[in-house]
Design brief:
By secondary structure, the chain is α/β, with parallel strands linked by helices. 28% of the residues lie in helices and 24% in strands. The strands form 5 sheets. The protein has an 8-stranded mixed sheet, sandwiched between helices. Strands 10-16-15-12-13 form a 5-stranded mixed sheet. The longest helix is centred in the middle third of the chain and has 24 residues.
Length: 606
């Protein structure tokens, strides 16, 4: 049985990869439900009595990625300052990175976010508008005139034709960043109905909706009261209308629209816990978005739930923030983050999770056992991939046996002579894919008989070649590998002289099959010590962050690359390509995921 022989290792410095935006949708609707505390919504969704039905919130949760434990800006639970955070993706106070807006009342004429800050503060409207998208804002409070003026609400206008920044990107779309503005304090869904009516006739690719029902009834009747709960069901009805809009009413939006829903705060008046005030929902729904997935689970390596409410720091791993909503929307639209923003400026809050692709086709379909005993077979899943770039976990099974035979993208397992039905399962932590392969383990005699059958089937005059193979089989049966090797070498000479001029394709196949048997029978005779001498000859970066490893060793050997980040936990990552002249190479496409990585070569020596 072949045993791995350990060889040298090398340290490589990795190259970081910048995240790039890729369009998932053509339309994005961002909804802020004023006063919709996450703990209160969680209680409603947990109810089984259907007193307050929420079928559309459940749809967003079951068909999208979500959490009910997002965090608003630190110590910023007033409606307008928090919505400035949502629109600009900035905290209220963080030096030059804060937006500095503190007022929760109607802005005065000429008073803008920029005049208070002392410099221009870009918003989601800037990015969407300057990239040629039609934009809209629908709000349930007059103070939202801070973002744009409308009818009698003349104060503010931070992003209107007067105070909006010039468009310096491509085609000049003007300074007015919000194309369609509607501010109406009436409740009962009038705002949503108006948005839907306008969207049917003159669609906006980006729209921001502010819905006030829970906040209004929270202040008047108390958060969690029966009246408050009924208003949440009213919001649910509005969501149903919006879902119908994007799925039925506007065909151009069907399958091309993302909905992101969050809130500005929870219980402002008398919260029993910090979470009741600072914890809010965060739903993302749309094509490509992971279905029924918890956002914290999907972002376990980059976000963590708040250890306390409110958060007091922006250092370290942060919770999911309500103010990440618009950079998520821009990413789904294939656009860059808001200039100067802080929350999700890297656009690394993951909301999509596509199924991995399992591919075990690099596993050899036929392996020869030199002595009829178990032989080491390399199970190779290195052609597997994940559309999201997730690191995959690999498990191998044989036939209907529920117990895995191996783990890892590459695994070396002993298999007896016979036919083996194997299954690779590749998992990204949430979804999995499978790929079945068949591996046949032959004795050297069986491989020689198969070679004879190939020669007989492909040649009209195969008798001289068959006689040579028969002699090789007889030598194998007598346990005389040297004689068998000599007969096979003679067969290769016959093929070169008799077959190659007539049928070079058949000749190459026969020569390859014969060489496989020779390699197995020789058992590394070119290097009697059984320890091939290998050395690294080159390491170079690849476009996209991969690494190209080159080394030299005796040709005909199977060399496996192993990798580690700590010199303790080694993982087989692939089989090196043998170029037949003593040079080998391997491309590690996943190298950029690691700050540094060590490699070593493992040779399948006898």
């Amino acid at each position: 049985m072949k045993k791995p022989g350990r060889l040298p290792l090398v340290l490589l410095a990795m190259i970081s990869l910048a995240l790039t935006a890729t369009a998932q949708v053509e339309y994005a609707i961002v909804i802020s439900v004023d006063g919709l505390g996450g703990t209160y919504l969680s209680n409603l969704l947990a109810r089984t009595d259907n007193a307050y039905p929420l079928p559309n919130f459940r749809r967003l949760r079951n068909e999208g990625a979500s959490t009910l434990s997002a965090h608003i800006d630190n110590d910023n639970y007033e409606t307008l300052p928090n919505h400035v955070s949502i629109v600009t993706a900035r905290p209220q106070f963080m030096g030059t990175h804060g937006h500095n807006w503190t007022s929760n009342g109607d802005p005065a004429v000429g008073q803008t976010i920029h005049s208070v800050k002392g410099s221009y503060v870009a918003s989601v409207f800037d990015v969407a508008h300057d990239n040629g998208l039609r934009t809209g804002m629908y709000a349930n409070k007059t103070k939202f005139s801070l973002f744009d003026t409308n009818t009698s609400y003349r104060g503010g206008g931070s992003y209107n034709a007067v105070y909006g920044a010039p468009d310096t990107r491509g085609v000049n779309n003007g300074r007015d960043k919000i194309d369609d503005v509607y501010i109406n304090t009436a409740l009962g869904g009038i705002l949503v109905n108006t948005f839907i009516a306008r969207q049917k006739t003159d669609p906006m690719q980006y729209a921001f909706l502010h819905i006030n029902e829970p906040d209004s009834y929270g202040h008047s009747t108390g958060w969690g009261s029966a009246a408050w709960c009924r208003q949440v069901t009213n919001v649910d009805l509005m969501l149903g209308k919006i879902l119908k809009l994007v799925e039925q009413d506007v065909p151009a939006m069907t399958g091309r629209t993302a909905i992101i829903l969050t809130a500005d705060h929870g219980n402002q008046d008398n919260p029993r816990t910090g979470a009741e005030r600072y914890s809010v929902p965060f739903f993302v729904w749309g094509p490509g978005v992971a279905a029924g997935v918890d956002l914290y689970a999907l972002n376990a390596d980059r976000r963590q739930m708040a250890p306390s409410y409110p958060m007091r720091t922006y250092d370290g791993v942060q919770p999911i923030r309500n103010a990440e909503a618009n950079n998520v929307a821009l990413q789904l639209l294939g656009l860059e983050p808001i200039p100067g923003s802080t929350f999700d400026v890297a656009q690394d809050l993951r909301v999509t999770n596509l199924a991995p692709i399992a591919d075990a086709s690099a596993t050899a379909a036929m392996v020869i056992s030199p002595d009829g005993a178990n032989v080491s077979v390399i199970l190779d899943g290195s052609r597997s991939s994940d559309p999201d770039g997730d690191l995959l976990q690999y498990t191998w099974y044989e036939a209907a046996n529920p117990t895995p035979v191996a783990h890892g993208v590459l695994a070396v397992v002993p298999l007896p002579v016979g036919v083996h039905e194997l299954m690779l399962v590749a998992e990204d932590g949430m979804l999995e894919a499978t790929h079945a392969v068949t591996v046949e383990v032959l004795t050297a005699g069986q491989a020689a008989e198969r070679l004879a059958a190939a020669a007989e089937a492909g040649l009209s005059r195969a008798r001289p070649l068959l006689a040579t193979i028969s002699a090789a089989v007889a030598s194998i049966d007598r346990n005389n590998p040297v004689s068998a090797i000599n007969q096979l070498l003679a067969f290769q000479s016959q093929v070169g002289a008799q077959v190659t001029p007539l049928d070079p394709v058949l000749a190459d196949d026969l020569l390859r099959q014969a060489q496989q048997i020779v390699d197995v029978l020789s058992r590394g005779a070119a290097n009697p010590s059984g320890r091939p001498h290998a050395r690294f000859t080159g390491v170079s970066p690849l476009h996209g962050g991969g690494v190209h490893v080159q080394f030299s060793s005796e040709p005909g050997r199977i060399h496996i690359l192993e990798a580690t980040t700590n010199l303790a936990d080694w993982e087989m990552i692939g089989v090196a390509v043998d170029h037949g002249d003593g040079t080998f190479d391997f491309e590690d496409a996943h190298a950029a995921r690691f700050a540094n990585r060590f490699y070593r070569i493992v040779s399948l020596a006898e």
